[in-house]
């Protein structure tokens, strides 16, 4: 069992698992590749100038051997760190686990995610990786995934799980789906909080005193507060009003 699996809560399931693309491993192991080039160069010089039985050939042979061993050790360490990565989307959160001996695990609740920005160049699209930034409602990056393997699949699964969680929390009225791109805002004045509050504070219907209805309304009011559509004071006032009906 991998370390990330031991961090799952009860009822939490993994939807998709990924790590950095193998090109990221090659980039980080560049010193190992350079050491192997030194090994190859030393062997070519020995063979080209017939230095096998000379003192110079002996020195070059030791240099080639040392470079080969150093390259293998460096590459093994980088490959081990790369293999230990776990970038996971569950039905509740996204999780990033890194480290071989000293583990570093960070996660973000799907409820707090407001946007996801995926950047892929031509080569990245061909090879199936990309850079993914996970943003909060304040457009502040809370997670950055560089050279993420299967980046598009990772993002789509995250969107699907967030939408399912919104449905589970908000009942039949999910919160607006996460944006898949960042279009320029439409012209015209932005809506004010006052334009949103009436929808949440409309007169109660005949079954408004039903506990399930009140619970769903509280969840919607909490979402409006988190998005800045209503103030915390307005939220608390409406919350007290709803709880008095129970």
Short description:
The chain has 8 helices and 7 strands, in the order βαααββββαββαααα.
From the structure above, extract its key features.
246 residues; alpha+beta; PH-domain like; 17% strand; rod-shaped
Structure description:
The chain is α+β, with helices and mostly antiparallel strands and 246 residues long. It has three domains: 3-20 and 85-170, PH-domain like; 24-83; 194-243. Helices cover 48% and strands 17% of the residues. It has helices at residues 22-28, 30-48, 55-83, 122-127, 151-170, 193-200, 211-226, 232-243; strands at residues 14-18, 86-90, 93-98, 104-109, 115-119, 129-135, 141-149. It has a four-stranded antiparallel beta sheet with strand order 1-2-3-4. Strands 5-6-7 form a three-stranded antiparallel beta sheet.
Fold blueprint:
Elements: E1 14-18, H1 22-28, H2 30-48, H3 55-83, E2 86-90, E3 93-98, E4 104-109, E5 115-119, H4 122-127, E6 129-135, E7 141-149, H5 151-170, H6 193-200, H7 211-226, H8 232-243
Antiparallel strand pairs: 1-2, 2-3, 3-4, 5-6, 6-7
Which structural category fits the helices and strands?
alpha+beta
Quickly name the level 1 CATH class of the largest domain. Answer: Mainly Beta
CATH superfamily label of the largest domain: Pleckstrin-homology domain (PH domain)/Phosphotyrosine-binding domain (PTB)
User: Quick one: overall form?
Assistant: rod-shaped
Number of helices: 8
Proportion of residues in β-strands: 15-25%
Cα-to-Cα separation, first versus last residue: 47 Å
The share of residues in helices is: 40-55%
Describe the sheet with the most strands: 4 strands, antiparallel
Give the count of structural domains: 3
**CATH-defined architecture of the largest domain:** Roll
What is the average per-residue confidence, as pLDDT, rounded to a whole number? 83
- Given as residue ranges, the uncertain stretches (5+ residues, pLDDT < 50) are 177-182, 191-204
Give the CATH topology of the largest domain.
PH-domain like
User: Cα-atom Rg, whole angstroms?
Assistant: 27 Å
Order of helices and strands: EHHHEEEEHEEHHHH
What spatial order of strands do you see in the largest sheet?
Answer: 1-2-3-4
Number of strands: 7
């Amino acid at each position: 069992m991998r370390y990330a699996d031991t961090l799952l809560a009860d009822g939490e399931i993994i939807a998709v698992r990924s790590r950095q693309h193998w090109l990221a491993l090659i980039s980080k192991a560049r010193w190992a590749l350079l050491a192997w080039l030194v090994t190859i160069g030393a062997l070519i010089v020995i063979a080209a100038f017939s230095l096998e039985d000379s003192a110079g050939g002996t020195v070059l042979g030791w240099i080639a051997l040392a470079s080969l061993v150093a390259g293998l050790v460096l590459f093994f360490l980088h490959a081990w760190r790369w293999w230990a990565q776990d970038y996971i989307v569950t039905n509740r959160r996204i999780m990033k686990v890194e480290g071989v001996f000293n583990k570093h695990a960070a996660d973000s609740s799907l409820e707090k995610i407001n946007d996801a920005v995926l950047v892929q160049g031509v080569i990245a699209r061909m090879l199936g990786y990309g850079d993914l930034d996970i943003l909060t409602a304040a457009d502040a990056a809370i997670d950055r995934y560089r050279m993420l393997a299967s980046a598009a699949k990772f993002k789509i699964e995250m969107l699907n799980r967030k939408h399912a969680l919104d449905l589970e929390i908000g009942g039949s009225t999910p919160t607006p789906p996460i944006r898949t791109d960042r279009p320029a805002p439409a012209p015209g004045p932005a809506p004010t909080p006052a334009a949103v509050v009436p929808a949440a504070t409309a007169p109660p219907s005949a079954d408004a005193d039903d506990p399930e209805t009140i619970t769903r309304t509280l969840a919607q009011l909490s979402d409006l507060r988190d998005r800045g559509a209503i103030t915390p004071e307005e939220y608390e006032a409406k919350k007290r009003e709803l709880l008095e009906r129970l």
